[in-house]
Amino acid sequence: MGDGWSQAGVGTISGYNQGMQLLLRWLVSAVALYITVLLGQALHLRFWVAAGLPGVEGVLLFVLILAVANAVLRPLVRLLTLPLSCLTFGLFAFVVNALMFWIAGQVADGFTHGFHVAGFEAPLFGSVVMGLLSGLINKMVVTDREKKKL
Length: 150
Known about the structure:
This protein has seven helices and two strands. By secondary structure, the protein is mainly α. The longest helix has 28 residues, at 53-80. The chain is globular, with a radius of gyration of 17 Å. 23% of the residues are buried. The model is unreliable at 1-13 (pLDDT under 50).
């Protein structure tokens, strides 16, 4: 037996309200980005996170900007690059994801100097690894409604 809200399926998601769940996913994405940057630095790719509070600000701001870029710009870019995606059997989506990662990195670096990404390899690596890590970690915090859909 749960409380009335979770039985009705309204207002709670996995024991949290929707705002708390959004905040949790934002933090999960930030952790995934931090791990991605550490892996990328080990491979000598050109992105870094500053130490201390500027680094935390940079990572959180980057994740927020990436979410906005993926919500606003990505559908338009995917539509415009649809012929290339068809020719490459969808593999051009990796380039689009790397572009969104790079754009978010440039905007975040303009606001705070806590996160920086440069070149093509770093955004490509970052978008793939961060997507995998976020997916794996978010799988652990999947919502009750999403579990019922599966």
